[in-house]
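Holo model, zinc ion. Inputs:
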Amino acid sequence: MGELQDFVAELLERQGAAVEKVDAGGLEVLVPQRLQETLGFAELVQLSFGANRPGHAIPIGLEGDWLDRFGALLGEHGRWAERQLTLTGAPEAPGNPERVLDRALDLPNAVWRFQGMTAAVARCLMLAFRYSVFSDEKREGLVWVGFNLSTGAVLDEVLAAMRPVLAREQWQAPDAATRLEAGPRWEPDVLQSRVRGLLERRIRLELEPFLRATRRRLERDQNRVHEYHEDLRGTSMKRLAALAGAQGEKPEADRRREQLRVSAIEREYQAKLDDLRHHYAMRVVVEWAQALELYLPVQRFDVLIRRRKGERSIRLDWHPLVRTAEPAPCDWGLGMERTRLVCDDKLHLTDRAGQAPCPSCAKAWCRACHPARCPRCGRAIKRGDGQGGRTPAI
Ligand SMILES: [Zn+2]
Ligand SMILES: [Zn+2]
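Output:
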């Protein structure tokens, strides 16, 4: 409970309260007038975060509406921040750049050559999104997506390693020279197109176990409904079979009744299936929660990519904070994996799907060269064909 206690103490202090720690699990707070009304506190209150609560203390925990009340105090504060990390000495550089690149690059149809490495500043953007899934159960979670705005790379792996490190470092507000050196931000439409695909994929990955469990429950219920109605229908069908060939008014009336019964069972079965579909239908709401723009010291690698007779230079950053290289930039696709295929004409780097054969005419073509349709048969690219949004020209 220590983190919550620290958070509440800092938040209340920033709002003008006088806060004093009274023991391991408690705060004594002198509350200014405005906060007294918002939080429903008296002028002097004792807040308790632990299990051993003195009788007069107000228990604060994650349950109840405390987070909402404190969240209301935060408002839009803390949604966006920018920080710079300045190293005291020269930035660390990897001893064997070729080995770093060997791990970072996977180019099945091209070769690469290391050309040089320089200390630089990267402008990295980390975005947090909260998702809520509404189905027969509710799920909530937080996903982070990140980009190196200076190279265009996706920073998933680097970011995951970096988050615990970030809390330890000394940060300051970025200065003008660093901002200039790191290069500009992306245009909003570019950022949006990159974020959309990546976020969708990340949330899908995150929800996969939940989706599987929900699907299993749906199937189990569908099977139960099916078995139940199949039994009823089977009984009626047997009765109908027994009546086959029987003549006269009574058997005819029985037959008609049994046929009506079968139709009613079938209708009820369909209605039950619709109910289940409705019950298990899923709605996912995603909201942006926080953005953190970081100016980080990096080693920038210049790498030459060769494919047949063509060649092209790319840049790729090695992050000393986590001693990890980011994946290569990606001209088409999400760029989450390290594998890139290189196209013949313009040496675009794409995800595997970016050079896949056309589903209609089987010709393989580069989606970065022809983003809308197959150049041979004209089949348009559909959403879900693996596209992830374009990378800005850097
Ligand atoms: Zn291409
Ligand atoms: Zn085609």
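The chain has eight helices and twelve strands. The pocket of zinc ion (ligand 1) is lined by residues 343, 345-346, 348, 366, 368-369 (CB under 6 Å).
Archived with the compound record.
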